[in-house]
Structures are given as C-alpha cells and as structure tokens.
Amino acid sequence: MAVAQGAGVEIRNVSKSFGPSGSQVTVLDGVSLTIGMGEFVSVIGPSGCGKSTLLKVTAGLIDADLGTVTIDGESVTAASRDKKIGLVPQSPALLPWRTVLDNVQLPLAVNKKANSDRILRDAKELLSTFGLGNAMSKYPGQLSGGMQQRAAIARAFVFDPAIMLMDEPFSALDEMNRDLQRMALLDFWQSNRKAVMFVTHSVPEAIMLSDRIVVMAAHPGRIAQIIDVDLPRPRTADAYATDEFRDLEAVVRTALHTQMEDAHV
Ligand SMILES: Nc1ncnc2c1ncn2[C@@H]1O[C@H](COP(=O)(O)OP(=O)(O)OP(=O)(O)O)[C@@H](O)[C@H]1O
Ligand SMILES: [Mg+2]
User: Fold this and answer.
1) Residue ranges of the domains in the chain?
2) Ligand 1 centre and the CA of 61: distance in Å?
3) Coil/strand/helix, residue 247
4) Residue 93 CA from chain centroid, whole number
5) Strand, coil or helix: what is 184?
6) 199 alpha carbon to ligand 2 midpoint, in Å?
7) What pLDDT, on the 0 to 100 scale, is given for residue 131?
8) pTM of the predicted model, to two decimals?
9) Mean pLDDT of the 63-68 span
10) Out of the domains of life, which is the source (predicted)?
11) What's the average model confidence in pLDDT over 170-182?
12) Which one of 14, 42, 53 would you pick to mutate in the ligand 1 pocket, going by the greatest count of ligand atoms within 8 A of its CB?
C-alpha cells in the first residue's frame, strides 16, 4: 500500500471492543491518526477513554478488531520484528536483579542475531544523556522513581527506533522532577527526531513537547479534536511564560473540559 511520504505511524479507522460477545464495550471507535516521521504527537483525554489501548494497538501488543496500523510503511508485526518501535510503558518495568546498565543492555543481549546488521546506540552513552552516568552499576531498587523512569526511557532508545510510544512516562514523578524529565526528553528528541506518540494527563507537558495534541473523547473512545502547537522550536522552559503558551493552554483545557463533562453525563 502506498504510504504518504514521511509517514511514520498510520492509524486507519481502528476499532477495538473488549468483553464477551453480547456485552462488548467499544473502547476505540474508528480512530484514524497519522504521525509523520520526526513529529511529536501527544494524546490526552479522560481516564478510560482508550489512550493506552490505542498505544498498545499501535505497538502491536493487542490486535484491533477493525482497521489497520502501519509503521514506517510496514505492518506492526514487521516493524516490531525490525525493532522500529520503542515503547516506554507507564511503569518502568525494570528487572530488579539486574543493574541499570544490564537492564538497558538486555534488549541487545537477547536479540543478538536480529541486531547484527543494525545501528545500535551505546547503552552507556544513553544513560549518561539521561543523567544516569553515575548510576549504571546500581540496581533499580537503589534508584528514585524518577531515575527508574529515565532508565526505562534510555532502554527504549537503545535500538534507535524510528517510532517511540510513551504511556504517561512521567506520571509517577513530583512536579519539579517531572518538568526536569520533560525538558531532558525534549532536548534529546530535538536532536534525535522520532515519530512520537506520547500519552499524558498534563496540559503544559503536552504543549511543551508536541507538534500536535490529540484530544480524545470517551464512551466510545474516539478523537474529538486535534490541536496544532505552533510554538517555535527548539523550545526551552522560557516558552511556559509566553502568551502563546497560555493561549494554547486555554484552548487545550477547554477541549479537555468539554470531553470530561460529556464523559460524566
Ligand atoms: N484487556 C482489557 N480487557 C477489558 N477491558 C479493557 C482492557 N483494557 C482496557 N480495557 C477497558 O478499556 C477502557 C479504556 O482503557 P485504557 O486503558 O485504554 O484507558 P486510558 O485512556 O488509558 O485511561 P487512563 O487515563 O486511566 O490510563 C477502560 O474502560 C478499560 O477498563
Ligand atoms: Mg492509560
């Protein structure tokens, strides 16, 4: 199938229901979304509207009932086999008995053959980039929540995937740390542009990071609105204080409140 040039992720008309036949609940209803190569797209919406389900369908972790997903022009299965998809789950899921460095190197070790002809990122370098240069030989249990999150992000980048899927990676962090992590990710992404799908509940986070913000509605989960974030790049923390940022915050919050109100009727 012909894919628009530069298309990273193509989600076409994806529907997904859960539950036994007869009492099925539609969680995703005809969702279509394209994320261009190098584009950062955030997904925001009421709890239970299907954000994680959409991310999991895109990652190939669950199958859609209807519709298709292509990654860089190939099926999700092929893209996943080719290690084109990086995934940062909501909880870091590090192996407690392995050091931080071993955790980050693990995907390389278990897949030696498949990796023989691809460019891999140096695990130590990645850990340093994410501020864990001095923690490589520690075990996950010896790290703070924020450090564990950073290790999980470093691990997802180790294959240098073309597509990065992140499910609320900073949700467990306090506001201060969350902002630090957000800006570190932004810096890293600005020099390593991937197609990113980033699920978050934070409006400022979505604005600071994204090119576009997808606002989802619930019951059934669907795309309600897509908001362009045309703030100039590269962005720094100074952007928070600009009128443009505040205007966008108002727009996104209004869109979100409309969905929240609808979700509670
Ligand atoms: N494997 C499953 N089996 C049955 N129902 C499921 C399954 N996974 C998700 N659901 C249901 O689908 C709906 C959407 O779930 P999902 O996790 O995608 O929401 P979400 O938007 O990520 O919510 P949150 O913001 O709370 O993380 C919920 O009602 C959830 O209970
Ligand atoms: Mg979720």
Assistant:
1) 7-84+161-263, 92-160
2) 14
3) helix
4) 15
5) helix
6) 8
7) 87
8) 0.90
9) 97
10) Bacteria
11) 87
12) 53
CATH superfamily, domain at 7-84+161-263: P-loop containing nucleotide triphosphate hydrolases (3.40.50.300)
Locate the ligand 1 atom nearest the alpha carbon of residue 55 and give its number.
18
Q: Which atom, in ligand 1's list, is nearest to the CA of 45?
A: 21
Q: Is 177 helix (H, G, I), strand (E, B) or coil?
A: helix
Pairing status of strand 212-217 against strand 222-228:
antiparallel
C-alpha 225 – ligand 1 centre gap (Å): 20
- Spell out the residues 6+ positions from residue 102 whose beta carbon is closer than 8 angstroms to its own: 95
195-199, strands of its sheet edge to edge: 85-88, 163-167, 195-199, 40-44, 212-217, 222-228
Residue of 29, 52, 260 to test ligand 1 pocket, by largest number of atoms within 8 Å of CB:
52
In angstroms, the CA 173 to CA 9 distance is 28
Of 218, 214, 118, 216, the residue nearest 158 (C-alpha):
118
Q: Tokens representing 82?
A: 């080719």
- Ligand whose nearest atom lies closest to the CA of 58: 1
- What the block records as the tokens of 209 is 């990071």
Mean pLDDT of the chain: 90
